Amino acid sequence: FPFSLYSQNGLVNVDSLSTKFAYEIRYATPTNFIGEVLYECATCMLQEEVAIALDKANAYFCKKGYMIKLYDCYRPLDVQKKMWTKVPRPTYVANPYTKGSIHNKGAAVDITLVTLDGCFVDMGSDYDFFGRASHIDNFTFSEEILANRKLLQIGMKQFGFGTVRTEWWHFSYRKNRSYPTLNEPLPCPE
């Protein structure tokens, strides 16, 4: 698999994958639940095995007329600590002082689907909305929204990604505990 952009810690840049993704890396902007810029650049880094699985999932969605839009990938542990300081609720933010987040291992993604021409696909709540509307066991939505969520979940599960109950957008790759927790900054262009 031809990866061109390795970083020192074994993470690969999703930009180097064969399929094209849409990007809205919210933590590289102040438009997030903390309200401040947490990343120096909008880069998506993942463990190689996770990146390959994500690329396969994206190819699957592309055949159905969609593509993956990335909100978050690898997250340095120091950023997790800032998030925990603002929202110390393990239902929504993993405690960085216990096991941390699978994002800190480069083995989780926060995503949604958009159409191939980049149009919005309704999932019933915004990304990082901390409330019942984001829960995957909430079935009080229209058939269209429920179908969109089901498409996303079924597609990701086929390629080794699991869900969490409180966030329709979060997918952790299987075997994720075998990866080390990392705190290296994102590799940003000079």
Summarize the structure.
With 190 residues, the protein is α+β, with helices and mostly antiparallel strands.
What's the helix-strand series? EEEHEHEHEE
Percentage of residues assigned to helices: 10-25%
Q: Tell me about the biggest sheet? A: 5 strands, mixed
The mean pLDDT is 93
- Strand content range: 15-25%
The value of Rg in angstroms is 16 Å
Uncertain runs: 1-6
Biggest β-sheet: strands ordered side by side in the sheet: 2-4-5-7-6
- Amino- and carboxy-terminal Cα gap: 27 Å
Query: How many helices in DSSP terms?
Result: 3
Q: Which geometry do the CA atoms define? A: globular
Keywords:
single chain; two-stranded antiparallel sheet; five-stranded mixed β-sheet; disordered N terminus; 190 residues; alpha+beta; 22% helix
What does this structure look like?
This protein is of the alpha+beta class. Helices cover 22% and strands 18% of the residues. The protein contains three helices and seven strands. The protein has helices spanning 48-63, 77-86, 143-158; strands spanning 11-13, 22-23, 45-47, 66-72, 108-115, 161-164, 167-173. A five-stranded mixed beta sheet has the order 2-4-5-7-6, covered by helices on one side. Strands 1-3 form a two-stranded antiparallel sheet. A hairpin with a 2-residue loop joins strand 6 and strand 7. The protein is globular and about 40 Å long. The model is unreliable at 1-6 (pLDDT under 50).
